From TrEMBL:
<keyword id="KW-0813">Transport</keyword>
<keyword id="KW-0067">ATP-binding</keyword>
<dbReference type="GO" id="GO:0005524">
    <property type="term" value="F:ATP binding"/>
</dbReference>
<dbReference type="InterPro" id="IPR017871">
    <property type="entry name" value="ABC_transporter-like_CS"/>
</dbReference>
<dbReference type="InterPro" id="IPR027417">
    <property type="entry name" value="P-loop_NTPase"/>
</dbReference>
<dbReference type="GO" id="GO:0016887">
    <property type="term" value="F:ATP hydrolysis activity"/>
</dbReference>
<dbReference type="InterPro" id="IPR003593">
    <property type="entry name" value="AAA+_ATPase"/>
</dbReference>
<dbReference type="InterPro" id="IPR003439">
    <property type="entry name" value="ABC_transporter-like_ATP-bd"/>
</dbReference>
<keyword id="KW-0547">Nucleotide-binding</keyword>
<feature type="domain" description="ABC transporter">
    <location>
        <begin position="2"/>
        <end position="238"/>
    </location>
</feature>
<dbReference type="Pfam" id="PF00005">
    <property type="entry name" value="ABC_tran"/>
</dbReference>
<protein>
    <submittedName>
        <fullName>Iron complex transport system ATP-binding protein</fullName>
    </submittedName>
</protein>
Length: 254
């Protein structure tokens, strides 16, 4: 579904990402990990066509993302940043309904089906009780849940998440990632997410892409990537690796 072919990006002659090659299959959850400044957010911006590669191209559903119109692309790709939704004084319901805009024609009002979709998503995301509350009165965790709900009504095939759990406590971090994982399994959604928390990345992603200094260092499962030597060489840290007692997935102890 997504093919990143020899993509590089430079700004003012400074290379930010270099020679990225990645093929992402439909229905997979891919975790982009790596130290600060590795180029993870830039890759997300390139995939969403927010930035243009200096070289190479990104094919989404067989067509270069740069050749898609903004509206068409928004019908297929939803993007969520760590800031989530801006805290405007609009209701939760209206904020979520805005996710339907890419599917509406010019001057076209929402149809019965659009409202039904919002109702379904309010239930799935457990936001029904908040429907009339103003966005700027919600907690950070609740607002991030609304951002996921808005992305859900957009009905994309690909969801891009840049550090969706940054400002959240552990309960809300798990809640958001579980929502995304359930959605992925339910609808065959493809997910690319930047995560700093390697333990969460190992638990929620099918595949990890480890980046450093603008390059992809390694692509693999958590078994391949969450390994002592790998993390020492990229993060310059000396973590202990243990196994999750329930899932047996490798986890890091600092
Ligand atoms: N528009 C820009 N102009 C100049 N430098 C940029 C620009 N955008 C990104 N960079 C630089 O490119 C590098 C990669 O940035 P990017 O935000 O993609 O990294 P990241 O892996 O997401 O980092 P972090 O984990 O800290 O968020 C950084 O050194 C950053 O300063």
């Amino acid at each position: 579904m997504l093919d990143i072919q020899n993509v590089s990006k430079s700004v003012d002659g400074k290379p930010i990402v270099q020679d990225i090659q990645l093929s992402i299959q439909k229905g997979k959850c891919i975790g982009l990990i790596g130290p600060n400044g590795a180029g993870k957010s830039t890759v997300v911006k390139l995939i969403s066509a927010l930035e243009k590669p200096s070289a190479g191209q990104i094919q989404f559903m067989g067509k270069d993302v740069q050749d898609w119109s903004v509206k068409k692309l928004a019908q297929h790709i939803a993007v969520l940043t760590q800031e989530g939704l801006a805290p405007y004084p609009i209701t939760v319901y209206d904020a979520i309904l805005m996710g339907r805009y890419p599917h509406l024609g010019f001057f076209q009002r929402e149809s019965k089906r659009d409202y039904e979709i919002v109702e379904e998503v309010l239930k799935i995301t457990d936001l029904t009780e908040f429907r009339d509350q103003l966005l700027d009165t919600l907690s950070g965790g609740e607002r991030q849940r609304v951002a996921i709900a808005k992305a859900m009504v957009q009905q994309p095939e690909l969801l891009l998440l840049d550090e969706p759990t940054t400002y959240l406590d552990i309960g809300h971090q798990l809640n958001i990632l579980k929502l995304v994982q359930d959605w992925q399994k339910r609808d065959g959604l493809t997910v690319v997410m930047v995560l700093h928390d390697l333990n969460l990345a190992a638990q929620f992603c099918d595949e990890l892409v480890l980046m450093d200094h603008g390059r992809v260092v390694r692509v693999g499962t958590s078994e391949d990537i969450i390994a002592k030597e790998m993390l020492e060489s990229v993060y310059h840290a000396n973590p202990e690796i243990i196994r999750h007692p329930k899932t047996n997935i490798p986890q890091i102890l600092l």
